[in-house]
Amino acid sequence: MATETVMLGHGSGGTMMKRIIDEVFFAAYGNDDLLKGDDAAVLPALEAGQRLAYSTDSFVVTPHFFPGGDIGRLAVCGTVNDVATSGATPLYLTCAFILEEGFPLEDLRRICASMASAAKEAGVRIVTGDTKVVNRGHGDGIFINTSGVGTLAPSINLGGAQCRPGDKVLVSGTLGDHGITIMSCREGLNFSTTLESDAAPLNHLIAAVLEAAPAVRCFRDPTRGGLASTLNELASQASVDITVEEEAVPVKSEVLGACEMLGYDVFQVANEGKMVCVVAADQAQAALEAMRRSPYGQDAAIIGEVTEARPERGPKVFLRTAFGSTRILDMLVGEQLPRIC
Amino acid sequence: MATETVMLGHGSGGTMMKRIIDEVFFAAYGNDDLLKGDDAAVLPALEAGQRLAYSTDSFVVTPHFFPGGDIGRLAVCGTVNDVATSGATPLYLTCAFILEEGFPLEDLRRICASMASAAKEAGVRIVTGDTKVVNRGHGDGIFINTSGVGTLAPSINLGGAQCRPGDKVLVSGTLGDHGITIMSCREGLNFSTTLESDAAPLNHLIAAVLEAAPAVRCFRDPTRGGLASTLNELASQASVDITVEEEAVPVKSEVLGACEMLGYDVFQVANEGKMVCVVAADQAQAALEAMRRSPYGQDAAIIGEVTEARPERGPKVFLRTAFGSTRILDMLVGEQLPRIC
To answer: Which chain A residues contact residue B221 at CB under 8 A?
Structure first.
């Protein structure tokens, strides 16, 4: 029997599209809002004073399936995490597919099941979606866009600009797992059979840290561009310096080995299930303990601190190495590994 | 001088990506929320009792530029219209690009300017975004996803399921302009030098109709699959029949000529700036007049009515022709013209 694949008619707006929606998307993650079938989902009113947090991300990773996850898990976790970084509770997602003619329906079903599972873990619902199909050779199997909204309590006001000298910098676990996993898959390298993408929804971890340490300045997930880009963004937003202690940064030995062999800087490698948190020094320990109580924060560590920027030059990020020397930790300039997420 | 094009590094998360964001996206449609640069936009609290309307759409149309619009105008108008169909006031959009390596930056700037202009016309703001770049040959220049949120007053409760026998069906203008324009561009046909895509934001038109005719049952924009698919969806949601008077449906003569020549059914051709509205019979005239007062509703017409479905078969849509005969107006089955939006 021929493999069922995506056809142009699945994007037509007609009966074939209705069928793929019913049999694939609704079957995986149907819910009352999605099933209404109107063009926009209508969602309940917020509680008084609550604001909206709103984010979007497209996912173009190859391969579509990799140890520890797949493009569907990434698409849900990535947007959940972006919404959660504001301190909000993510509630609703949209999901839009750009499918290439010929993409196996079996793969699409597997991806949708993975999205449903990640959404359930995060406690969010996919409430509306869209499906487009492009001709063979004009896409790459599957691209997914998710957007997400969450509600933000009036008392919470996080952001990169809130960082100030004296604050501590935490990371919720080991760096580089996602980037090195994808690279290993793609290049057929076998650094380790145990290495997996860290893709995970971190909204519950974030909520726990916020409760334990209300003096959090900001959260940021170090995805493309890695920790180095994230810290440079924060330094720039707040006009401060940040110094990281290399020895304090958790990195798996397989990841470090791969980076050394390939000439990658682990600080610039992408993560999909890690959170950077800047917090007032006196609450850093409480934040760390809250992270470590989360299943995704076992390896959390305090890795550095915020200091005043020197007026004669712009905000900088420094790395103090194990040997006591200090180097500038730059933002990634070009491209390390395309299509990492 | 070589043409500036999109490079893989523009999707890296590093300094090249920061530059394209600053110089292209912020330059076109920057605003306070977007410029904050955090991962999620934080938006003001809603008024008491207001609900959220939430929608998403990806846009893959080729060619990217066509008479009457471009992929950017479509991306803004499409999502604005989907949010507005619920009766909501669209407020905020997200915008996510999937760019192919080699795409001319000049085209991207033009598309972003067009998005800024359409957003301004609709009165919405692009508050957060995302940029991915795929390798040459794995995309098709540019794909755009937009999502949108709007606020919905407690008194409004529209939806396909609200249609009931006796209601009138309106359309806000001529059918098929967008689909035939795209097809003419793509195939190098010249049906007319005056034919243009109808891509337009219809939120102001919808608000005017709702004010004039509070007994509106639902709005729906007849995009992919055309009027035939839209009416079949409504009939199915409400378990009713719908009968359309062929002579009452506004169609431009160039569009009709093209459809006849190519064997297309104009009722299945896509529109991007038209709205179908079902309204209680005693307010149909008021709704019609409100549509006609809008710049995008000059050719609005009452085209049919809702009747009871016959119990021995499912809900159906009928077309009464100029000759007095009646045929079933079916949903599009396969694909008429791929990548129409």
So the answer is: 39
